[in-house]
């Protein structure tokens, strides 16, 4: 066994291993787990098995059915192989886990074969945030022009945005959207969807709510409410002050 092991290592040293095709792209989600699938034909005897990261470092190995031995501290406690095959499961994915992985395996039918993987780590996207970043009053008071900005917090790389509208035919790519609305369209809602290779999430907005007209009506209501609140507070205060003076007066009378 030991001699075979040494033989194996020397074969790799001379680069005599057999590569099996292009790297497989595997997509993983940050903080979750991912499996690099590997199947070995039934009945084949596996002599040794190595998982390498970035083609240089051996991170884990199996020797003659002795279970997985994780040798790289970065992966300690985060690697496992399911029963029955040699797929590698990586748990609690980190951003720095992204990169190329190689499974190197020696069976009684092939000296050494390599299977390469390219792991891409992405975060699960949160709900995008829509911001109106420019509001201009269009032609007179009739149209309302709004520029909308859609972004995802901590989205990382590879996030793509699309805009769609419910009552209007629209499909636009990119995080910005310019809309021009007339009061008839006050109920039109727009949806911004953010996507990456592992997830998608979306947020709806009714742009009219950012338009002058509605804010103006809103502020009138606000004013009424404020006046009412003011009057109410004054009355309460007056009652309180009267009560305090009465009590104070009576106490002083008693003391005298
Ligand atoms: C490996 O085994 C696991 C669990 O038994 C299974 O979910 C997975 O599909 C298998 N993978 C392959 C490539 O056979
Ligand atoms: C590999 O070993 C298994 C049993 O361990 C045997 O059934 C199979 O025929 C062998 N394959 C080759 C190519 O020698
Ligand atoms: C969208 O993001 C929210 C948090 O912002 C999350 O609770 C929800 O599960 C996400 N939806 C999807 C489909 O990932
Ligand atoms: C869009 O929103 C992002 C995140 O809030 C911000 O950093 C960026 O400056 C905004 N873009 C514009 C043009 O306002
Ligand atoms: C939105 O309008 C601004 C000017 O108001 C313009 O600079 C920008 O290119 C427009 N964006 C899109 C996506 O049409
Ligand atoms: C907007 O919706 C409300 C209730 O859903 C409805 O009463 C109103 O007429 C609608 N306005 C327009 C302009 O369609």
UniProtKB/TrEMBL annotation:
Region forming the signal peptide: 1-17
Membrane-traversing stretches: 230-249
GO cellular component terms given for this protein: external side of plasma membrane
Pfam families: Ig_2 (PF13895), V-set (PF07686)
Biological process per Gene Ontology, one example term: T cell activation
PROSITE patterns (alphabetical): IG_LIKE, PROKAR_LIPOPROTEIN
Location in the cell: Membrane
InterPro entries: CD2/SLAM_rcpt, Ig-like_dom, Ig-like_dom_sf, Ig-like_fold, Ig_V-set
Keyword Nucleotide-binding applies: no
Alphabetical list of PANTHER family matching this protein: SIGNALING LYMPHOCYTIC ACTIVATION MOLECULE, SLAM FAMILY MEMBER 9
Name of the featured protein: T-lymphocyte surface antigen Ly-9-like
